[in-house]
């Protein structure tokens, strides 16, 4: 189990953070929680997109403690999930993989260069990414949960 990180905040401390592009393997993230996603892949992807839009410009920490500010979220959808509804949030880019979602994740990570932080648990994909920073779906879902909790009135 991954250790929970600090709560995400809307403020960025420029001296302590670096700007990143999250490249999200949506199929891997959606599939990481057994919540019935397989009955409605399009709906599950639409819900994930809605949540991911809230992370643009959020500051948080990677599992190794590195402070990051999410400047953009690139989400790769494949298969039935390509029919998901894009919420149209600035800073959230939805990429529809023509066939192989992993290949599209690699393309997006290379395009982001050193700023890329890829979200996947796929070992084969991790190997294809070379030295890119990679975090698991548990980290991303934890950040999303904490961000949503921080925005709810107590």
Give your account of this protein's structure:
With 154 residues, the chain is an alpha/beta fold. 32% of the residues lie in helices and 23% in strands. It is built from five helices and six strands; from the N terminus they run βααβββαβαβα. It has helices at residues 26-30, 41-52, 101-112, 123-128, 137-151, and strands at residues 17-25, 59-61, 67-77, 92-96, 116-119, 133-135. Strands 1, 2, 3, 4, 5 and 6 form a six-stranded mixed beta sheet that branches. The radius of gyration is 15 Å and the shape is globular. Mean pLDDT is 87; it is low at 1-14.
List the helices and strands and how they pair.
Blueprint: E1 17-25, H1 26-30, H2 41-52, E2 59-61, E3 67-77, E4 92-96, H3 101-112, E5 116-119, H4 123-128, E6 133-135, H5 137-151
Parallel strand pairs: 1-3, 1-5, 3-4, 5-6
Antiparallel strand pairs: 2-3
Keywords:
alpha/beta, 6-stranded mixed β-sheet, 6 strands, disordered N terminus
How much of the residues is beta strand, in percent? Answer: 15-25%
- Distance from N terminus to C terminus (CA atoms, Å) equals 27 Å
What's the β-strand tally? 6
Largest sheet: 6 strands, mixed
Indicate the overall shape: globular
Q: C-alpha Rg, in Å? A: 15 Å
Low-confidence segments: 1-14
Specify the structural class: alpha/beta
Q: Average pLDDT, to the nearest integer? A: 87
Indicate the multimeric state.
Answer: single chain
Order of helices and strands: EHHEEEHEHEH
Number of helices: 5
Helix content, binned percent: 25-40%
């Amino acid at each position: 189990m991954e250790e929970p990180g600090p709560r995400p905040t809307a403020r960025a401390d420029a001296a302590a953070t670096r700007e990143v592009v999250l490249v999200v393997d949506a199929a891997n993230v959606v599939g990481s929680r057994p919540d019935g996603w397989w009955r409605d892949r399009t709906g599950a992807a639409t819900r994930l997109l809605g949540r991911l839009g809230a992370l643009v410009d959020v500051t948080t920490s990677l599992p190794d403690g590195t402070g990051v500010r999410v400047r953009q979220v690139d989400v790769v959808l494949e298969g039935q999930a390509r029919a998901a509804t894009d919420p149209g949030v600035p800073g959230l880019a939805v990429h529809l993989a023509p066939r192989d979602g992993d290949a599209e994740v690699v393309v997006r990570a290379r395009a982001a260069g050193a700023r890329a932080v890829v979200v996947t648990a796929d070992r084969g994909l991790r190997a294809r990414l070379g030295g890119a920073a990679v975090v698991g779906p548990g980290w991303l879902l934890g950040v999303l949960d904490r961000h949503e909790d921080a925005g709810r009135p107590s």
